[in-house]
Automatic annotation (TrEMBL), chain B:
CDD domains: TM_PBP1_transp_AraH_like. It is a multi-pass membrane protein. The chain crosses the membrane at residues 25-46, 58-77, 83-104, 111-133, 139-158, 170-191, 222-246, 258-288, 300-317. It comes from Kaistia terrae. It is found in: Cell membrane. Keywords: Cell membrane, Membrane, Transmembrane, Transmembrane helix. This is ABC transporter permease.
Amino acid sequence: MTNVVVDRLKLTGIGKSFGTLRALDGVEMSVRPGTVHGLLGENGAGKSTLLNILSGVFAPSSGHIEIDGVRVAGHGPKAARRAGIAMIHQELQHVPELSVAQNMFLGRPLIAGGVFVARRLQEQAAADALAPLDRSIDPSAPIRTLKVAQRQIVEIARAMMEDAKVLAMDEPTSSLTPAEFERLAILIADLAAKGVSVIYVSHKMDEVFRVCETATILRDGRKVADVIMKDTTESAVIARMVGRELAVAGHQSFVQGDIVLEVEGLTRATAVRDASLTLHRGEVLGISGLVGAGRTELLRLIAGVDQPDAGEIRVRGRRLPLGNPRTAIAAGLGLLPEERKREGIVARRPVSSNIALPSMRRFSRFGFMNRRAVARESLALMTDLNLRPLSIERPIGQFSGGNQQKAIIGRWIAAGAQILLFDEPTRGIDVGAKAEIYALIEKLASEGRSMIVVSSELPEILRVSDRVLVMREGRIAGVLERDEMSEEAIVALAVPQSAPRAASISRS
Amino acid sequence: MSTSNSTALNKVEKKFALPVGLRDAGTLLGLVVIVVVFSILSPNFLTEQNVLNILQQSSINACVALGMTLVIISGGIDLSVGPIAAISAVAVAVLMAAGVPIALAIPIALCFGMAAGGINGALVTFGGLQPFIVTLGTLSLYRAISLIYTGGNPIFGIPPAFRALTNSTIFGVPNPVVIVAVLAAIIWVVLNKTPLGEYFLAVGGNQEASRIAGVPVTRTKIASYVISGGLAAVAGLILVGRLGAADPTLGNLWELDAIAAAAIGGASLMGGKGSIVGTLLGAIILGSLRNGLTLMNVQAFYQLLATGLIILVAMLIDRATRGRE
């Protein structure tokens, strides 16, 4: 028993709660030195929370982290760094105007003579760290001139410069070309050969199987399995990620024959590519897909918030002028945005004003606002929507998330919208309010309104949708009818993957 | 149902008057403190004649500040109000000197002011530039136009009939005070009773959310600058009437007094918040301060010092009383 290998990284009983929400529960994970270890799970499974705990951004509510058998002392990003944990974020965090070297030494510059930043020394050190990875990167160039792939290499070099023992990479390939991925894969293999343990987070199954030796699968904040990649298959891993058979019970359909909305070939840069769809009266069309698949962007194009490069939208057969929220609203569309605070509410204004905002013309006579009518209608709507507290003049910013959401829905009901575009309607709201929103969606459908619901939560999509449209990398990957819907089928369409998986989709 | 609704309505309507009113009450309290202090220090302060003086002296700043308040509420700033006033003043004087009837010269001059405001608005919206930079640029530009056109010389020969408009009184109240009071009432109605007012508050409070909710953001912003330009023009004309000449350099630093009045009155430079009553009170506070210090023969340098302190103290009190927002 002389050659017992101590785990490079060991997580013991990691738990994390945000208020009443349990994001992580008793997660155990161990990674050997020089191993590339995948961290897998659906959106919301707890991957980001775990990474944030690893890099010291969050303190765990319970449990602890060990590096080479030594418990990481203290909390915070500095403690994690000192222990040898480096993190490469999905959104690279750089100061664009500063040079590569300056970015690599950001926050802890090399000092010469007590006060001066030793620029030359920094650039030399940066060059030394970059040399084994990519000799083409000039340490004195502003970082904004580098491509994303190169910036990632800078991040890796920086981690190496700090003698990182564990390097966590969050979706490192989300904006890389296949060729760039190949280079990155080789780099990662080199790092592992030097004894660095790499935690690799990705949605892309083929990449995970290509890069990782082992992986931990999370679901709903718990670890469901540790797998060895060569002993498993993509479909087995996806089945583990999705897991449970969800109660799809309680869904009621109010779909009627006539088409109210047709979208054809809608395109905006690479975010949305050639998207077409139809929506029927009383129908709830779910849109699923991974984060960044273009769901929000598609919704914003339909709502006229962004200007498409190409495509056509018809509402009840009539062509809608594109890129203008006002004409879209006049045609009966209404958007419930994903970022409620930034795009939904005017926090300081009363709920009633927030509700009446798109309907000012209807609420005014001879150029004057009919405050009485606004108050009467807001109150009726708020009562209907069970919006609490029932105080029409209270600033909307003082209401809970769920109630703010109801107010925005009320806004579109007041505006007479017949086609509602819901972007993550239950994000950040509690379970009770969630159920109310679902019931509301059904009620609106029963009144003959049509809805498009974008959601990252598969159970939610399965609960409310009559049909599901799955997006992948800006394109519509497929449409599933109610009887074809399952989490597996959605994930199979959503995840960019290697070809053989197609067979397993048709089976389900 | 209807009875429970109407009682609920009454309840909320009573509540609703409070938050806005409370801030204005604070400004009023500040004014009362200043008035009490000065009337103790100087027996001539609280006389009918001096109170009218203060109102008259404050009226020009109040007029400019009304427009400024709308611009600030909708998330902008207008540094070019002084030069806009000068352009309008020069315009009205030149037109009248050329024999254009007063009843025509005045609206034309006001159109100059509104057009200048419209240019500001267009640069902010269509040009996509920051309001501070736009109006900093037009501050120089508009001033240069009035200086170049006049060669830097004041224009005299203002008809007595025009001067009478600003120098006479109605029931003992100086006309400029009456004019500004009427304008303030109109602006109050616009802000509180019309869709445009709701749009000002919404766009300043959250522009992106307003756009998604179908608010005509571009039109709303341009409207605020046009109104600000028009009110600056009114202020310019009042001064021409008072002085009997149109000086192309008039209105220097008016923008700062106007911003100060709006801020003391509760306008947030971040947008989305402001009060017409508060701005009027703010202008009167600044006017009283200057008037009182002058009565006490305090040197101009110290008046400047006091003005600066009042602005800072007012803002600190505002911040402290709002507390956790």
